[in-house]
Each structure stands twice: as structure tokens, then as C-alpha cells.
Specification:
Elements lengths: L1 H8 L5 H15 L7 H9 L9 H11 L15 H4 L56 E5 L4 H6 L1 H7 L7 E5 L2 H10 L7 E4 L4 H11 L5 E5 L5 E15 L4 E13 L3 H15 L3 E5 L11 E2 L9 E5 L14 H13 L3 E9 L16 H15 L4 E4 L8 E4 L5
Parallel strand pairs: 1-2, 1-4, 2-3, 7-10
Antiparallel strand pairs: 4-9, 5-6, 5-10, 7-9, 8-10, 11-12
Helix pairs in contact: 1-2, 2-4
Length: about 400
């Protein structure tokens, strides 16, 4: 025992010997039966502890008693919400996917030479917009589809827009039915929005209804009702001085942070202006507010346009009709890419929101979102096999569809 303490307190460079001596002492302290050390050795280890620990005989001793630095007891893992729901395991073979022909993607073109196809109106009847619904040609309108969230929308998205001095007359809330209309009318302060419109139930149905509700060429920004913040990337250079014997050298390094966007109205107008110049009809932002992954770039290649905030120049085209509720944002991105060969994404602008967590919305529909997402992922991959792949490795267990930027 004295020898073990001697090696623990030793200040020599024999760190491995000290570590092994510490392990032996911890093993000795595990004697919960208060047996003598000799009895403990006979019953547990059946081999004597070296009287004079050295690097060689301690390694031999540890090999004999089978000490393992890796705990044989697995660490406790906290279950996710999806695990607690006891959802059934879905095999790909059990999913029925509508028979369809894969869409052939045309060869990619330069982002400065995007071929523009003139939109043609469809004969589908739609509600006639009133003068309040048609802002000036250089203006835009903000649309917020919402379901059973009258309290959340006013402390989240509407409060966010109010802080950024967005004209409330350009904000329209779309609800599912008359009951929802009465609920929102009674609870949401009318100075936060311009109008409430009764649409249809279901996210994809509501999105399609909104597209048909407004005329072609309308500049529409769609936002979720639970946005916390819209941020912008700030890139700066910090200088540090390194003293040396004869000279002082300065090294500059890049520092990236995020802050609340300084002028949301100006950003939206600029986004639509760039779309018109480059003949692009869909723009979006970075899906998170993480400065580490955000970049001061604007891209037009195939990148995911996230659903909580995006802008569109409205077109009435049958191939732009959404067909799924779950992953409808991925379907919209792929539809526009196939037609225009470009989607505009601002990688320096991000959003803060809680995906799949806030009550209400699609969480209130009573559907198994994991199962619906899996069906949608296989559906989209079958429809766009050249530019997508399936990803099932998220910690949350939520299936994802990934877009291949180099596939076209």
C-alpha cells in the first residue's frame, strides 16, 4: 500500500506507472465487504499485488486480473420524443408509393444563363383578389398559414414582424375554417395584421390555395407562425499581437457571429429584385442561426429552401402543385429546380425556430409525423432519383431527403 501511494505522489515523468498505481488503489477501495486485503486478493483476484510496482510488473498484473478501462456497463441514453411515442418500425417494403415515371432532369445551365419559361395561367377557378390583396408592383405581401395557434402566432411571428416595422396591412393570416377564423379574430390583436382569410385544412392544400388565391407575378413571402428570430451573419477580423525578441508580428483571423437582421424590409425587397434580374422564382434562407456553418454567400445551385421562411414570385402552373404535407418544402424546392434550374438561397441569413416541437399546427392533426415523413421521403426519391438521396441517420429518427448538387 505504501508503494502505491509513493508512485501516486511521485513527480517523475513515469505517468503511466502513476496511473496504473492509482487504478490499483481504486480497486482496493472497492472492498465493500470490509475483508482484509489478503482475503480480498484470494477471493477476487487470486493473484498478489506487486510489492514493488514497476512499469513491467504492473502491466502483467493488470493483464492477469483483466482490468478494462472501458466500462462494461452501457451509459444511459435519454429517449427522444419519437422513442417515447412507441411508433411502429416501418419497413420500406411495406410502403405503398403511387406508380409514376421518374422525372428526367435536363442538363444544368449557368446561373447567369437560366432559361426562362413564360408562365401560362391555368383555367382553375380561384377567388378574385380585392384591391387590399394587390400591393404595388415593387411591393410584397407576407402570408402566414396557421392552425390552432392564436396565442403562439402573436408572440412569435407577428411580434417579430412588428419589431421590424413591417407594414401590418401587408400581412395576411390564412386559417382552415370559420371556427378558426372566429378564434383568431377574437384572440389576435388586429394591429398586428391586415386580414384573416379562410382557406382550407391541410398544409399542402393551404399552400396550393394561397398560390391560386393571388394573381400571377405577386411577390409572396410565406412564413411559419412560430418564428423566433431572423438573423444575419457578421464577419469581422480581429488582430492579435505576438511579441518576439526583435519584432512584433500581427496576425488577423476571421470572427463570425450572428445578430438580429438590421433591416428585414430591405432584405425582402432586395431578394425579389435579384430574383427578377436572374429570372429565378423561389428564394430562401439558411435553415439555422449558427454562425459556424453560415457563409457570406448567395447561391443559385440546388440547395434546400427551408419552409419557415421563403419567398416566391407567384405562378399558376400545374407542375408546381404540392402533393404531400410532410416534406412539402423539399418538394417545392425540387419542383422549381426542375423548371428553372435555379433556386436562390441567402446563406448569410438564418432563422431561429423549433422544428417539430411547438404545439398546434401539424402536431394537432393527430398523424404519425415520422411515418408520414418516411413515406414522403421515398415518394420524392422515386420521383426525383437523379438529384436526391434518402438519409435516415438523424438523432431524432426523422427521415430526410437530401439534394445532390453535383448530380446534374
Amino acid at each position: 500500500m505504501v508503494q502505491v501511494d509513493k508512485f501516486i505522489k511521485s513527480k517523475t515523468n513515469k505517468s503511466k506507472v502513476r496511473n496504473l498505481a492509482s487504478k490499483i488503489k481504486k480497486i482496493q477501495a472497492l472492498d465493500k465487504t470490509k475483508l482484509s486485503i489478503n482475503t480480498y486478493k484470494k477471493k477476487i483476484y487470486k493473484s498478489p499485488i506487486p510489492t514493488k510496482p514497476t512499469k513491467k510488473n504492473i502491466k502483467t498484473y493488470i493483464a492477469k486480473i483483466g482490468i478494462n478501462t472501458v466500462s462494461p456497463i452501457p451509459l444511459e441514453q435519454k429517449p427522444t420524443k419519437l422513442d417515447l411515442a412507441n411508433l411502429p418500425i416501418i419497413q420500406p417494403s411495406n410502403i405503398n408509393i403511387t406508380n409514376m415515371e421518374p422525372i428526367k432532369v435536363k442538363p444544368n445551365v449557368s446561373k447567369f444563363e437560366n432559361k426562362h419559361i413564360t408562365p401560362t395561367p391555368t383555367p382553375t377557378p380561384r377567388p378574385t383578389p380585392t384591391p387590399q390583396q394587390t400591393p404595388a408592383s415593387n411591393d410584397y405581401i407576407i402570408v402566414i398559414p396557421s392552425f390552432n395557434r392564436p396565442d403562439l402566432i402573436q408572440i412569435k411571428t407577428l411580434a417579430l414582424l412588428h419589431r421590424h416595422n413591417i407594414n401590418p396591412q401587408n400581412i395576411t393570416i390564412f386559417v382552415a375554417n370559420q371556427e378558426q377564423y372566429d378564434l383568431y379574430k377574437a384572440k389576435v390583436p388586429n394591429f398586428l395584421y391586415g386580414r384573416i382569410v379562410i382557406g382550407v385544412i391541410g398544409l399542402k392544400n393551404q399552400r396550393n390555395f394561397i398560390m391560386e388565391y393571388y394573381p400571377e407575378g405577386m411577390q409572396i413571402v410565406q412564413m411559419d407562425d412560430d418564428l423566433d428570430k431572423i438573423v444575419e451573419l457578421v464577419v469581422s477580423r480581429r488582430q492579435s499581437k505576438q511579441q518576439s525578441r526583435k519584432l512584433v508580428s500581427r496576425r488577423s483571423s476571421v470572427r463570425k457571429t450572428v445578430r438580429s437582421i438590421s433591416n428585414l424590409d430591405e432584405f425582402i425587397r432586395n431578394a425579389f429584385r435579384i430574383c427578377k434580374e436572374r429570372k429565378i422564382y423561389l428564394w430562401g434562407v439558411y435553415p439555422l442561426s449558427n454562425a459556424r456553418f453560415m457563409t457570406p454567400t448567395m447561391t443559385t445551385d440546388l440547395r434546400f429552401i427551408v419552409g419557415p421562411m421563403w419567398g416566391i414570385i407567384n405562378r399558376h402552373r400545374p407542375e408546381l402543385k404540392l402533393t404531400i404535407d410532410e416534406k412539402e418544402n423539399a418538394e417545392r424546392t425540387l419542383q422549381h429546380w426542375v423548371i428553372d434550374h435555379a433556386v436562390l438561397r441567402f446563406n448569410n441569413i438564418g432563422i431561429e425556430t423549433k422544428y417539430y416541437k411547438n404545439k398546434g399546427g401539424m402536431q394537432n392533426e393527430g398523424k404519425n409525423r415520422k411515418e408520414e415523413a418516411l413515406k414522403s421521403v421515398y415518394y420524392l426519391h422515386k420521383k426525383y432519383p437523379q438529384i436526391t438521396k434518402i438519409y435516415l441517420g438523424k438523432k431524432s429518427g426523422m427521415p430526410e431527403i437530401r439534394m445532390l448538387k453535383s448530380a446534374v
